[in-house]
Amino acid sequence: MSTVAALPFPYVFEPARSALVIIDMQRDFIEPGGFGETLGNDVGLLAAIVPACQRVLHAWRAAGALVVHTRESHAPDLSDCPPAKRLRGDPSLRIGDAGPMGRILVRGEPGNAIIDALAPAPGEIVIDKPGKGAFHATRLDAALRERGITHLVFMGVTTEVCVQTSMREANDRGYDCLLLEDCTESYFPRFKAATLEMMHAQGGIVGWTAPSVGVLTALTAVQVSGTEWMSSRA
Ligand code: C5J
To answer: Which positions are annotated as active-site residues?
Structure first.
């Protein structure tokens, strides 16, 4: 078992029964010319978390634990995009319109890809999700249960939209969830702060939050004890 200092109290997880869930680290949200910018946001804020996310992803892979990536995306014919989502507000380009990185939020378009720095490795799960939550209209819950996963560690964007929605969905499905504070970001810093607080309030009503350093330390300990175990058998 690994223990991480977290709010509202320590988070205990077993890497073999845990998945790292990376929400929507896509060009459409992080780079100019994508969905995030069409909504009028400053996308520069989000890129700042990439190095911290990379450190956790590399450590998680080295521990041999499960990685899940999500992409907010729609079919090219937009059959999975409710008109209420496409027509809401007054964006400079709507979902499905052609932008500088291809059609906005459409599967397979350059802008819809996960950024190179966090690109999925072979064998990792990639979930295309038409909604904000990673469990809505996807096979994520089944994929996790098939593998005996009980604990989810979340990173990604944006904190108060797709990350929060996914973590709430996971909590309702019985997973123990930890959100890494320096590995998530919002276009609105005050929304990030409020979201972190509401997740761990009331005794962890949605889950736990913690800086990523605790998970990095815990995973290093797992690798060291794994190596000791292997060398004692050699
Ligand atoms: C948004 C997301 N913000 N990935 N999507 O529309 O949070």
So the answer is: 24, 129, 162
Burial bucket for residue 169 (CB in 10 Å: 0-12, 13-18, 19+): buried
CB atoms within 10 A of CB 203: 7
Atom of ligand 1 nearest to the CA of 158: 7
Residue 109 CB less than 6 A away from ligand 1? no
- What is the signed CA dihedral for 216, 221, 223, 225, rounded to 10 degrees? -170
CA–CA distance, 70 with 52 (Å, rounded to integer): 18
Q: What integer pLDDT is reported at residue 200 of this predicted model?
A: 98
pTM for the model stands at 0.95
Nearest CA to ligand 1 atom 4: 162
Task: Answer whether 50's CB lies under 8 Å from 118's CB.
Answer: yes
Task: Give 71 Cα–ligand 1 centroid separation in angstroms.
Answer: 10
pLDDT at 227 over 60: no
